[in-house]
Amino acid sequence: MTPLLTHDDRHSPAVVKLRKFLEAELTALRRRNDKHRTETDTAGIRGEIARIKAILALCEEPRTVKTPED
Question: Which pTM value belongs to this model?
Fold first, then answer.
């Protein structure tokens, strides 16, 4: 599967700034999740965490998979 973002995209100033923002949001959500919450609130926070992690994954360099020919 072809990555959504190119190497240059992932290292552009805008994406770097967005990544830092999302990482800060992720940290804040994890702190909120550590506090006593209702099951519904906890599920919502975990959903937000999962969504941010999925977006951050787009900013990571794709892993290269070795084939038997390598």
Answer: 0.79
